Amino acid sequence: MPRTPPQVVSPNTNNFVQNWSLDAVLKSIPTTTIPSPSSPLAFLHIIERLKTTPREGWRRHGILQGESISDHMYRMSVITMLCPPEHKVDKDRCIKLAIVHDMAEALVGDITPPDNIEKAEKHRRELESMQYIVNKLLKPISEVIATDFMGLWMEYEAGKTPEAVFVKDVDRFELICQTIEYERKYEAKKDLKEFLHVRDGIKNGFVQKWAEDALREREAFWKNAGIESIVP
């Protein structure tokens, strides 16, 4: 008899978010993700999901072909390279933080405020997922590599080092850029100002300036569309 394929647990559905468990997600993933001490394939198969999982906030506005989680992380990595040299941070570490910071979403999905998941529960899910990725997939290859990945994720979550503070600012700034770009793409038919509140959390002065420039650009766009200003 033909083998019945496993039921795929799809991120970014209400049922997935409300009834999430790491075990259920892992059972839905093909057995090609079995860890091996000689190959990173299992790890790579897991993080491939970052390429195919869309950022959920846009979908709620009818943008169904929007960016993936990895799209967002890639541009964040590029933005960290634009940090002014006088701002004393380790750029290489910032790039690593940007690449790793949302890695747990490969298994958790993109949880957004309308999902009504408590912050502590979101952190618990992401920590459990990172522990699986690190301990089951990376440690068999190299304990040093596993420790490095977990350290980067924990550093970003704590948000205490200059590098983590900067990358969190970059996360917010990248969202502002994407908001403006989608409004342009849809020719002012979508008002996405709800995402712009993140500017209030930006701490570095030069990133604040970048955000202000972006918001002025956005305001000019909406004026050209016949609306004086929709900046909140």
UniProtKB/TrEMBL annotation:
<dbReference type="InterPro" id="IPR039356">
    <property type="entry name" value="YfbR/HDDC2"/>
</dbReference>
<keyword id="KW-0378">Hydrolase</keyword>
<dbReference type="InterPro" id="IPR003607">
    <property type="entry name" value="HD/PDEase_dom"/>
</dbReference>
<keyword id="KW-0170">Cobalt</keyword>
<comment type="subunit">
    <text>Homodimer.</text>
</comment>
<dbReference type="GO" id="GO:0002953">
    <property type="term" value="F:5'-deoxynucleotidase activity"/>
</dbReference>
<keyword id="KW-0479">Metal-binding</keyword>
<feature type="domain" description="HD/PDEase">
    <location>
        <begin position="65"/>
        <end position="185"/>
    </location>
</feature>
<dbReference type="GO" id="GO:0005737">
    <property type="term" value="C:cytoplasm"/>
</dbReference>
<dbReference type="Pfam" id="PF13023">
    <property type="entry name" value="HD_3"/>
</dbReference>
<comment type="function">
    <text>Catalyzes the dephosphorylation of the nucleoside 5'-monophosphates deoxyadenosine monophosphate (dAMP), deoxycytidine monophosphate (dCMP), deoxyguanosine monophosphate (dGMP) and deoxythymidine monophosphate (dTMP).</text>
</comment>
<comment type="similarity">
    <text>Belongs to the HDDC2 family.</text>
</comment>
<dbReference type="GO" id="GO:0009159">
    <property type="term" value="P:deoxyribonucleoside monophosphate catabolic process"/>
</dbReference>
<dbReference type="InterPro" id="IPR006674">
    <property type="entry name" value="HD_domain"/>
</dbReference>
<dbReference type="GO" id="GO:0046872">
    <property type="term" value="F:metal ion binding"/>
</dbReference>
<keyword id="KW-0460">Magnesium</keyword>
<protein>
    <recommendedName>
        <fullName>5'-deoxynucleotidase</fullName>
        <ecNumber>3.1.3.89</ecNumber>
    </recommendedName>
</protein>
